Amino acid sequence: MKTYSSYKDSGIEWIDKIPENWELVPIKYIGKVLNGSTPSTSNKEYWNGNISWVTTDDLGKLKTKYIRKSRRRITKEGLNSCGTHLAPIGSVVISCRAPIGHLGILKVEACTNQGCKTIIPFNFNSLFLYYSILNSKEAIDSLGKGTTFKELASSSLKDFKVLMPKIDEQIQIANYLDQKTNQIDELIAKKEQLIKLLEEERTAIINQAVTKGLNPDAAMKDSGIDWLGEIPEHWKEARIKNVANIIGRIGFRGYTTADLVEKGEGAISLSPSNVINQKLNIDSCTYLSWEKYEESPEIKIYSNDIILVKTGSTIGKTAIIPNETPEMTLNPQLVVMKEIKLFQKFLYFIMISDYFQGYFKVYTAGGSTPAISQEKINNFKIAFPPKEEQIKIVKSIESNCFLIEETSNKISQEIELLKEYKESLISNVVTGKIDVREEVLN
User: What is the pTM of this model?
Assistant: First the structure.
């Protein structure tokens, strides 16, 4: 693509060279920075008004770059009570803690809580500023200070330098990036929807196979389970406790952060984050000292064990342990199924089916942290055929789902490449590595 005719050193290593006629200026010279604040939560007169009050949570859940509404709203009295001000449409809001760097452009007048800061640009294009800060996210994050959590100070944000082409060039660049990134985002959304459809097809295959079997002409009987319906007449029924032994980390054998060690100095302690898409993922792990690992041999994890999340927001997530895994144990949020009397993979497919997952919707205890007891899991009722048929069903599922998973993985890789391309495009355009002023977009 076309480049600018001449460049100069920016003086900033990660930016490198910039177009000759561009400048680097502190944010305080191109806009006003507003701090956020929170009205007293005990005063009902301050809340449920008509003024948008943006928080880091609002920014984190944005699906576009624009802020059109906030989860909570305050009254004029609430605004006046907390010493902050309304920012106009077009202002750029940035989260300054937990985490630093979520962004949005106001499409409504709004104020924010103290976890956000708002930049009101003057004679500077809001969209160009948005892309500039988006491209500078790592550099801005590195300015955060704190021990419990990092926070970006107003002074640091005000002094942070952004690139400044002439205003008409800012508009050209911003409009180009908006059109290009929208095209990329639309393509990503279509691919994500295709993955969702493939996953639905995979789920339907599993549901059908583990509840009705492979013979469509088999005689059927009532299972006695409302959300399961009829099952093949020759299938047996049992509770989980009759086909497997569920074991969790015993309370007095719990552990503290003092028992955690570096990689290579202990065993992996599996947590819910290690179960992704109903499969084991140990790319990122916590490690427990060998002493603590050996203290609970009953929950050492081996091939073909099945682990299940019993506490937390992802309750019900399940994975079967593959061959050749390193030494592993459990944290208190999981249980493991051992001494499995069924074909292990058949039980695994039952556990990820919709009907088995339905138990968690019915029997999970509420509260801030969802949880289910081992006793309740033990009493979940399942249906199954003879072992030879279980093996045939598993082979059928794996055969029918292989192409689906291969296709889904390929699409996921394409999505990651598109995201990388989008990030690279924004970086190259917003720092002037390529000149898009004469680009014509159809």
Answer: 0.81
